[in-house]
Amino acid sequence: MLCKVCAEKLGKVSGDYCVVCCSFFEKSDEIAEKIAKSFDFEFESFNVGIRSEGSFKAMQEFLETRYDVKNEMKRILQRKLSEITQKKVSLSPELLIVFNPEDFSFKLEIKPIFIYGRYIKRVRNISQTRWLCGFCNGKGCEICGFTGKRFVSSVEELISTPVVEMFKAREAILHGAGREDVDARMLGSGRPFVLEVLEPRRRKVEISEVEK
Question: What stretches in the chain show pLDDT beneath 50?
Fold first, then answer.
């Protein structure tokens, strides 16, 4: 059976459940509202992707070029979510929503933030990035004092900890332009780095706050 939208596109009779769109078009308002309610983070732009798998994928392959239901789903979700959130659709979005028509589930992919800077290391025995204990692989043991780390701290942790808190992010990863030995200092103008802030729930953070 087909919903009214798919029946009209394919010239067929409509029914209660649509095997082409999994009844998406009849429930699109409800689906868009549910997705929008999950947005508890800052963003200005978004886009939508449709996951094709299972019976939905098989139906699309069967229909071939007669009816591009994926593109129609994407267009409707883009329009409805834009109306609800007042955010714009972008080809380079801060948020990507991946929707699965099979079970109406969805996944949110938040674009990371990249911060460029330089660090100076005035003391020795601090690694550039987190260095896990070789005996327990980060789980914690007597050798590492149950810290899970070979060294007490790292440049990555010292920089990323406050940044993660500011942006309410999942974590932050430091990418250094080269590296120095653990027992060496980094003076002068410092070493360039890029900090990748993953899944930030805040984006509107003044760079002056980060510099402090």
Answer: 13
Tell me the pTM: 0.80
Tens of pLDDT, residue by residue over 136-195, are 988 888 888 888 888 878 999 999 999 999 999 999 999 999 888 888 888 999 999 999
Instruction: For residue 195, count CB atoms less than 10 angstroms from its CB and return exposed for 0-12, middle for 13-18, buried for 19 or more.
Output: buried
- Amino acid identity of residue 138, one-letter, is G
Q: What is the CA radius of gyration of the chain?
A: 24
The domain defined by 113-211 folds into Alpha-Beta Plaits (3.30.70)
Task: Give yes or no: 68 in active site.
Answer: no
Q: Which residue out of 16, 29, 40, 181 is catalytically annotated?
A: 181
Class of the CATH-defined domain 28-110: alpha beta
What span, in angstroms and rounded, lies between the C-alpha atoms of 82 and 69?
A: 20
Separation CA 30–CA 104 (nearest Å): 10
